[in-house]
Amino acid sequence: MTATDSVDVLVHRALLYRDEDEFLDVTIPFLWKGMAQGGRPVVISERAGLVRRRLGRRARGVEFIGAPDWFGAPARTLTAYLAHARDRWWPRGPLYLVAEPVWRARTAPEIREWGRLESLLNVAFTGTPTSLLCAYDVRSLPAEAAEDVGRTHPELIGVTGTRRSALFTDPAVFYAERNRVPLAPPAEPVMSRGFSGGDLAGLRAFVAAVAERHGLPRERRLALVQSVSEVAGHVVRNGGGRGSVWVWSADGRLICDVVDAGPALDDRYLGYFPPAPHRPAGAGMWAVRQLCDLVEIRSGAGRTIIRLHMGHGPR
Prior knowledge:
By secondary structure, the chain is an alpha/beta fold. The chain folds into 2 domains: 11-179, Rossmann fold, CATH 3.40.50; 191-311, 2-Layer Sandwich (Heat Shock Protein 90). 40% of the residues lie in helices and 23% in strands. The chain has a 7-stranded mixed β-sheet with strand order 3-2-4-5-1-6-7, sandwiched between helices. The chain has a 5-stranded antiparallel β-sheet with strand order 8-9-10-12-11, with helices on both faces. The protein is elongated and about 60 Å long.
């Protein structure tokens, strides 16, 4: 047991495992401890079947959640974590959560944002009765995701014990670093349109037409139009007053850049946490992050780019 083993503070550990036995040798004692402490054990992993079989009858005391649906989009996953913890998990005792993200078919921007999510969990759950055990199968883990593990988890755990991560990085610093990663240039062909305060209706019609032309389902088209409208409205109200929109298709999804030539946008944690009385400014961007599969924000050189990703179906 380490000094951070307490139900009164956040414990956030990463398990890098090389086979199923190593995975079970760490996760099963963790779940047993949660049950012994009167906590709420939860497993979100595609290896849930292995856990069920190893636990036997004791598996009835564990909540199992499907990993592919849960790990659809980073911002929506963070919202689900917070909502479940508040409404279902903490009321029943300290949370003991085994979580294993799904990495199949992730693009480079997605991998970067999942790393950001792991870092933000240190902010979201600080001071709560939460023990997070994040599992990573090194046999299939993307290289960039592997590089993030030690930087986003204060502790690393294995069959030989627990140790502090010498690479752990303050979430605010990690977040700022992610915002300095250059965006990939748009892929041709690109359709673009300028906008100003009196032309948002025309902008919505333009985005809807492009999305329909690319075969985006109606519900997803509406979500993209709503998101672009919200971001463009922010530009008109709080930015340079006018901007441009660039739309193209890549990686099986529609990507839309909303470009603001005005002041740099302060995007520290912008839109990642649910709206609250002390965070009214981020409500619109929080909604945008819930609607889109991925949102990237970059400010610099006298402009801000808000890049929205929308696939043909929820991830």
